[in-house]
Amino acid sequence: MLTxxxxxxxxxxxxLLLTNVISLETTLQLRERALELASADKKAGKGDTYLSxxxxxxxxxxxxxxxxxxxxxxxxxxxxxxEYLLGADCTLSSFTANILYPGAVDAGLHIDFPxxxxxxxRPSFPMVANxxxxxxxxxxxxxxxxxxxxxHKRLKSLPEAGVEYNDKQQICGPRGSVxxxxxxxxxxxxxxxxxxxxxxxxxxxxxxxxxxxxxxFNLVSEGVIERATPTLKRLLGYNSIPNNRT
Length: 246
Description:
With 246 residues, the chain is of the alpha+beta class. Helix content is 25%, strand content 20%. It contains seven helices and ten strands. A seven-stranded antiparallel beta sheet has the order 1-8-5-10-4-3-2, covered by helices on one side. The chain is globular, with a radius of gyration of 17 Å.
């Protein structure tokens, strides 16, 4: 359960840092596996790199890439925050690894799709939210996520490229933490000035009425579905399938 203070932080600031959510052992397992997958994608010529210097990489569809990820995305401490924001029937939109290599530039601020494509004023209630899993300590040097607390209330505004906002903050914390971010909050990764990769997972969730970012029905293998818990099946959208009545 979320405390009254935690709910207030999500309501007023749109962000909440949960510490000690992931054990050190699990954090190391997730980090090692994420880097293995990223390396394999690059070797296969399908590495999804981005930013102006291609020094950041995403690995998609983690639910289908190891039981450690299947278990992680069902973490009850993280899910209770998502369900508070998006309803008890919220679904998984995508689950990715996000790696900032040394030299990765500041990504700038944004809000999450589909909010960025909606007419203004945007809805005042949360529609999507992200969970940022700290597989390394997040510091000012290695690209800790930047946010503008309370910006989810700016229903008619979007962050402007190249503008420095005085109320922007980097959210630093120890590995094993999970940062919950209302998708309407202005946020983005920062420059990685360290000499090591900064590794995170992004568990992106949406209300059950929205189309997920990834088509889990066609991407997730039968083996995952066969062993899936009721919670995982719900997150993958099995409770949100349109009916076939004629």
